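Protocol step 4 of 6: structure prediction from sequence.
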Amino acid sequence: MSRSFQRRVQLTGGATLIVSLPKEWVRRVNIKAGDIVTVIPQPDNSLKIVPGRKKLLIPTRVVMQVDEDMDPKTAVRELIARYLVGYETIEVRFSGESYTYKKMMREIVSKKMIGVEVVEETVDSIVFQCLAGPRELPAVSALRRMMTVTANMLIDVVGCIDDYNRSVLEEIEIREDTVDKLYFYIVRQLKSVAMGLVLPHEIGLDSIRDALGYRLIVKSTERIADHINRIAHTLLENGPLKPRHMVKSLKELGMESVDTFSMTITAMFKRDKNKGHEVVQRSRVLKSKVGDFIQTLLESRTSTQDMIAMRLIIESLERVSDYSADIAEIVINLMTEPPIKY
């Protein structure tokens, strides 16, 4: 039911204005006299009417069938999709051999999903249940944690550019799994808001409008963590970089990326529009410095192996700065008042 309805506002009791609800909608959501609905003011001065939770006839359990010819990676993606769309219980049934599928699903649940546990298992089925929700960890709080973990990863990997530490580099991949967990968890909550299953204030948002902006922000943060992990892998495969003067220049650019992302976090959570503009400007300046660094690198006597490693690292540092600017621009947009309709 997507068409709009018009209703005349009526006066009752001498002071109260009332409007009737569309009969088709009332039947669809099973509302009766005496039931409670939630009325939510929107940024454009419109109102959103949400029926009581018990009236939302939305299944929280889903059965997923895995045929024996389905690729295990496809099955895992299907599982993730059902988690992101908001199902609380996911029962997976297998028509053939199930060991490989179960192993991969347990691994992805352990590494990438917060609060999801195996609650039942048979030879040809496995049941996953999501035990964590917005009340335990709202999306905005989870995003703060996600950005903090990512910032600390960036500080550590930049430190390893001139102070090589294999243990720190190996640990970064584990910490990236934490970022991925928070990413999926936040996206799940944002999708629930978009579908009307959860109210914006329940996950820390001011309005539904914010959900789109936050969706883009969490994706950019997840991509920053990917590039940090890429830098760590490059250093692990290459070993300590040289010559010293090029390493020093690379480290300085790395610290500028750290400062830019840290400023982005400040702009995000302090709602500082000026900081957001400063991040965008710093990102542009860093991009020009990257070009100068690459030119100097090509003219230096750096070995081919170290030159390739430095090119990969500087490209990732540049992408970190670009994604930081993307986040800052979204923050600026979120803080800009939308047009008001009367």
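Step 5 (inspection) to follow. Residues 279 and 325 are 6 Å apart (CA to CA).
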